[in-house]
Amino acid sequence: MSKNLCRAALKISKTRKNAEEQVKFRANLLTESQEFTIV
Fold first, then answer.
1. Helix (H) / strand (E) containing 22
2. Tens of pLDDT along the chain (39 residues)?
3. Which of 14, 24, 29, 30 could be bridged to 36 by S-S, CB 3.0 to 4.6 A?
């Protein structure tokens, strides 16, 4: 059971990291385009 918990936690941390990277990527796209300004 503990192995499954570890795998689940690892999977969650990976998806969370990917989500954070996607947010950063989108923020970079927005800041590069002149239409959007982040205040």
1. helix 2-32
2. 788 888 988 898 899 999 898 888 888 877 766 665 555
3. 30
